[in-house]
Amino acid sequence: MAAHLVLIDAMNLIRRIYAVQERPFLFNNTLSDNTKQQVLFNTQKACIAAVNKILLQQSPTHALAVFDPEQPCWRYKLYPDYKKGRKKMPEHLAQQLIAIQDELLTLGIDSLVSEQDEADDLIATLAVKVALRGQFVTIVSTDKIFLTLLGANIRVYDYFNRRYLDENYVTDKFRVKPSQLIDLWTLTGDSTNKIPGVPSIGPITAAELINQYNSLMGILKAETLKPKIKQKLSQNQEQIELSRQLLTLKQGIPLGFNLKDIRLPNQQAVETNLDSDENIVVPLKN
């Protein structure tokens, strides 16, 4: 029996559920202490209910909730303005994460937290490692970065809109293939994460260039570009290299555990080593 691993982008799920639970109680953009506790309670219960629905809908053999590190990840060191201006997670919600992780354990779902890599990088590493071994992966998230991983064995599920974000979704929305998204966003920038692109190159122009020349490398080597575009690319070489590095998900983080370590109770499936490294570099939370 082939394995089916569900990877839950935990903070994507939790923060969106928290925002829904918090909204009715906000007054002048603040919550009283008693209300905070009520919202946290509602959030935790809603999160567990959501995960239960995901398990029922996906019927996975294995599952893992992946969390961001407490400290800023490597991208902030590379580019201090990364995600600049994004609303920080409320402190009372941050303090509730351990309780949510503990309750996830009652469902048989462990949590993975890194000290320096984003959850996105850990999810990408896990998804690719499992997919390359012929197993199946469903990433539960609304984060568009995971669309770059779409393939025969990797799919992305939007729990809140109850739909799969597949290749047709990508081509309809972005006018390029999933494998070309990093090139697209390198040119346009990613406003969500405050990653700049090439000035004056918007999504339509970027998609047209990529479809004509197949890739960013093809565009940079092209001799038939309009002079203005060629000049913009030439003047922003360093920014192009930085943006591409920031946008690219890591896929080789040492993990040090096997699929059997995250198998759901009463499930039988083909087990495989996720890493040849004997040391557990990224610990599971027990």
* H/E topology pattern: EHHEHHHEHEEEHHHHHHE
CATH architecture of the largest domain: 3-Layer(aba) Sandwich
Distance between the termini: 27 Å
Query: What is the CA-atom radius of gyration, in angstroms?
Result: 20 Å
Query: Using DSSP, what is the number of strands?
Result: 7
Shape descriptor reads: globular
CATH class of the largest domain: Alpha Beta
Question: What kind of sheet is the major sheet?
Answer: 7 strands, mixed
What is CATH's topology name of the largest domain? Answer: Rossmann fold
Keywords for this entry:
286 residues, alpha/beta, DNA polymerase, domain 1, 7-stranded mixed sheet, 7 strands, 43% helix
Describe this structure in words.
This protein is globular. The protein has helices spanning 10-22, 33-58, 74-78, 91-94, 97-105, 119-132, 167-174, 181-188, 203-213, 216-221, 227-235, 237-247, and strands at 4-9, 62-67, 110-113, 136-140, 154-158, 163-164, 284-285. It is 43% helix and 10% strand. β5 and β6 form a beta hairpin. The longest helix is centred in the N-terminal third of the chain and has 26 residues, at 33-58. The protein contains 12 helices and 7 strands. Mean pLDDT is 91; it is low at 276-286. α1 packs across α2 (33-58) and α8 packs across α9 (203-213). The two termini are 27 Å apart. The chain has 2 domains: 4-165 and 251-281, Rossmann fold (3-Layer(aba) Sandwich), CATH 3.40.50.1010; 175-247, DNA polymerase, domain 1. It has 286 residues and is α/β, with parallel strands linked by helices. A 7-stranded mixed β-sheet has the order 6-5-4-1-2-3-7, with helices on both faces.
